[in-house]
Amino acid sequence: MDKSRALPVFESLSSGVRLDVYRLLVKRGPEGLVAGEIGAALDVPPTNLSFHLKALTQAQLLTVEQEGRYQRYRANIPLMLDLIAYLTEECCSGHPEQCAGLPTACSDRVLPPISPSPVKP
Predict the structure, then answer these.
(1) Running DSSP on this structure, what letter comes out for residue 97?
(2) Which element (helix H / strand E) includes 75?
(3) Cα gap 51→86, rounded to integer Å
(4) Residue 65 pLDDT > 60
(5) Which of 92, 96, 99, 118 is the most exposed place for a label (fewest CB within 10 A)?
(6) What pTM was computed for the model?
(7) Quick one: pLDDT band at residue 91, thresholds 50, 70, 90?
(8) Which of 108, 112, 15, 6 is nearest to 55 (CA)?
(9) Which domains are assigned to the chain?
């Protein structure tokens, strides 16, 4: 990922409603939710919600699949992990071992593997 790809993702998450939608869908995992369920869970009116879902979908943070007359939305988890990797790729000036022990939700998947420092004689 590069800066030009990261910026629209951050812009789409700059709304409190969109951030709530995305976090809800991350929590739901691959099952996702249909738009009505999202609106009910977050108490967002349908017209307002469709505006936010469109913005998140255009930023590719969400995928949408037609199911009869409903649309099921899912969080794009690989994109989220790419974004986290982009943010942390320069972690500790290229010395990720300095970040060991920092509490993160998915540090083992995002940060490079931490190798022990070589023992100096």
Answers:
(1) G
(2) strand 70-75
(3) 27
(4) yes
(5) 118
(6) 0.77
(7) confident
(8) 15
(9) 3-76 (1.10.10.10), 79-110 (no CATH)
